[in-house]
């Protein structure tokens, strides 16, 4: 993809995030930012936002690519994802802008990032690199997130939760252990949960490619939402 990062993700890009206020006055100050898969903002992410709001928390599913700009073909999805993840500084700058636009006035809100597949990694990126982040939950996200250049530049106060399919071919054991060692070395609060008999994209009802290691798992998805609710309760 020959275009610059700015022309793909910033210049003249009009976005419409999907925002739902929390249904509980005691929890609505928790602002959950939902990072989408490499397909962009879809009904899946909107449904997740609705479900989180029903738990009492405020939620915003981000329009990552812009209105009418979601990639359709697999090659285009991979190309946009590659451009997005090519360099740390542009990525984190975009994440900061999108988080601020989603939260309106950031002050007084407790920001927790949640993401799926590509969004799982983006949640980890935001949690580690954006100073206003309180937590990050990754669902079947990759562990190849950018490490902070120094301990001082890492947001070590972020709580991390990773929900991973044990049979996910995109996350091998060495990558998982390396990520855990990294967080442990920073003294961060993290939890890493493996689900048995579970592949990549286990939260996505549309995932049905077991030959490629991607398969929706309704039981694991149900457990995933339970874990997420308990995780979010820690910030109340």
UniProtKB/TrEMBL annotation:
Pfam families for the chain: DLH
Listed GO MF terms: hydrolase activity
Record-annotated Dienelactone hydrolase domain positions: 30-234
Domain of life where this protein originates: Bacteria
Keywords, alphabetical: Hydrolase
Xref: InterPro entries: AB_hydrolase_fold, Dienelactn_hydro, Dienelactone_hydrolase-like
Protein name: Dienelactone hydrolase
Provenance organism: Marinomonas alcarazii
């Amino acid at each position: 993809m020959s275009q610059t990062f700015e022309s793909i993700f910033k210049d003249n890009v009009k976005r419409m995030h999907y925002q739902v206020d929390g249904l509980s006055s005691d929890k609505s100050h928790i602002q959950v930012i939902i990072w989408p898969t490499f397909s962009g903002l879809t009904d899946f992410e909107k449904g997740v936002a609705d479900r989180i709001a029903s738990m009492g928390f405020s939620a915003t599913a981000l329009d990552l690519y812009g209105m009418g700009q979601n990639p359709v073909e697999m090659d285009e999805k991979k190309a946009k994802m590659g451009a997005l993840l090519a360099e740390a500084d542009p990525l984190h700058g975009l994440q900061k802008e999108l988080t601020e636009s989603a939260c309106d006035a950031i002050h007084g809100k407790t920001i927790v990032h949640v993401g799926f597949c590509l969004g799982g990694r983006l949640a980890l990126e935001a949690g580690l690199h954006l100073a206003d982040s309180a937590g990050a939950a990754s669902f079947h996200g990759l562990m190849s997130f950018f490490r902070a250049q120094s301990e001082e530049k890492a947001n070590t106060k972020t709580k991390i939760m990773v929900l991973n399919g044990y049979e996910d071919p995109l996350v091998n054991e060495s990558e998982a252990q390396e990520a855990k060692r990294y967080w442990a070395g920073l003294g961060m609060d993290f939890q890493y949960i493996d689900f048995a008999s579970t592949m990549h994209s286990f939260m996505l009802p549309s995932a049905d490619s077991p030959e490629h290691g991607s398969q929706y798992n309704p039981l694991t998805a149900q457990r995933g939402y339970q874990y997420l609710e308990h995780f979010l309760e820690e910030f109340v």
